[in-house]
TrEMBL record:
It comes from the Bacteria. It is a multi-pass membrane protein. The keyword Transcription regulation does not apply. The chain crosses the membrane at residues 15-34, 81-108, 128-152, 199-226, 246-268. InterPro entries: BP-dependent_transpt_permease, MetI-like, MetI-like_sf, OppC_N. Gene3D superfamilies: MetI-like. It is found in: Cell membrane. Keywords: Cell membrane, Membrane, Peptide transport, Protein transport, Transmembrane, Transmembrane helix, Transport. It comes from Rhizobium oryzicola. This is ABC transporter permease. Residues 79-268 form the ABC transmembrane type-1 domain. Pfam families: BPD_transp_1, OppC_N. Belongs to the binding-protein-dependent transport system permease family.
C-alpha cells in the first residue's frame, strides 16, 4: 500500500479540495440540483424572502429577485460560469506564461530582455481596467471573458516562474545535461520543468481565484455573459436596486464568490507550503 503523499496530508489542501469538489459537483449536476429554472420569471412572487423569514415560499428556498427568479437556482447555475472561467483562464494563462518564462530564464540575453520588457509594459496597466478594455474590443461572451483574462494574467506566471528558472538553470545537474549533449528542449522539459512544477501548480490554483473575481467584475458591469446566463456578478448588479427590501439577494452571490475564492486560495497556499522544498526545510529547522 502506497503512503499518502505529503501534500495531501495538509489541512489547507484538504479544505481547498473539499470546497473545489463540492463546487464542481454543483456545477456538473446543476440541472438536477436547481429547484427551478434560473431564468423563469414569476411576477407574483417578487422579492420573496428566504425560508427562515416570515412570508417565505417553499418553492424558493433562498427567495426570489426583483423579477421573481429563484435565487438558489441562479446561484447553482452561476457556479458553472465561475468554474468554467476559472479553469479555462488559469490553464491558458499558465501555458502562455510558463512557456515564455522558461524561454526567458533558460536562454537569457536578449531573449530574456525582450520578454521582460513586454511583461513590464503589460503590467503597467491595471488588470481590471485592461480586462474591461479588452472586453470592449472583443465583445461579450464567455469565450471572450476567458480570452481577456488569459491576455491579462499570463504575466503573473511569466514573472514569477522566470526567477525560478534562472535559479534552476545554474544547478549542476542542468550543466551536466548540457555537457552530455541534451538538446535545449530536453533540458528544459526533463531537468528544469520538474523543478518549477510545484510553483506552477500553486500559481495556477491562485489564478483560479483571481479569474473568479475578474469574471464577477465583468458580469457586474454587463460585459461578461448574456442576461440569459446566470452569473454571480450579474446577480450582485441586479440586487443593488432592492438592497434594503431584500438584502439576502446581495449577500448570497457575494458569499458564493467568497467561498470559491477562499477554496482556491487556501488550496494554493497549502500546495505552496507542502510542495516548495525551501519552505518545508525552513519549517523543519
Amino acid at each position: 500500500m502506497r503512503p499518502i503523499p505529503l501534500w495531501l496530508k495538509s489541512g489547507r489542501v484538504q479544505t481547498g479540495l473539499v470546497i473545489l469538489f463540492v463546487l464542481s459537483c454543483v456545477a456538473i449536476f446543476a440541472p438536477y440540483l436547481a429547484p427551478n429554472d434560473p431564468n423563469e420569471q414569476n411576477l407574483l412572487s417578487i422579492l420573496t424572502p428566504p425560508l427562515w423569514s416570515a412570508g417565505a415560499d417553499p418553492m424558493f428556498p433562498l427567495g426570489t429577485d426583483s423579477l421573481g427568479r429563484c435565487i438558489l437556482s441562479r446561484l447553482i447555475f452561476g457556479t458553472r460560469v465561475a468554474l468554467t472561467v476559472a479553469f479555462s483562464a488559469a490553464i491558458g494563462a499558465m501555458v502562455i506564461g510558463a512557456i515564455l518564462a522558461h524561454i526567458a530564464g533558460y536562454f537569457g540575453g536578449w531573449v530574456d530582455w525582450l520578454i521582460g520588457r513586454v511583461v513590464e509594459i503589460w503590467l503597467s496597466f491595471p488588470p481590471v481596467i485592461l480586462s474591461l478594455i479588452l472586453m470592449v474590443g472583443l465583445g461579450t461572451g464567455l469565450r471572450n471573458v476567458v480570452l481577456a483574462i488569459i491576455l491579462v494574467d499570463w504575466t503573473r506566471f511569466c514573472r514569477v516562474l522566470r526567477s525560478e528558472v534562472i535559479v534552476l538553470r545554474r544547478r549542476d545537474y542542468v550543466a551536466a545535461a548540457q555537457l552530455v549533449g541534451f538538446s535545449h528542449w530536453r533540458t528544459i522539459t526533463r531537468e528544469i520543468l520538474p523543478g518549477t512544477l510545484p510553483l506552477l501548480i500553486t500559481l495556477m490554483s491562485l489564478e483560479m481565484g483571481v479569474a473568479v473575481i475578474v469574471e464577477a467584475v465583468l458580469s457586474f458591469v454587463g460585459m461578461s455573459v448574456g442576461s440569459e446566463t446566470p452569473a454571480w456578478g450579474q446577480m450582485i448588479a441586479d440586487a443593488r436596486q432592492n438592497i434594503y427590501e431584500a438584502p439576502f439577494n446581495l449577500i448570497a452571490p457575494i458569499f458564493a464568490i467568497f467561498i470559491a475564492v477562499f477554496g482556491f486560495n487556501i488550496l494554493g497556499d497549502g500546495l505552496r507550503r507542502t510542495l516548495d522544498t525551501r519552505l518545508t526545510q525552513t519549517e523543519r529547522t
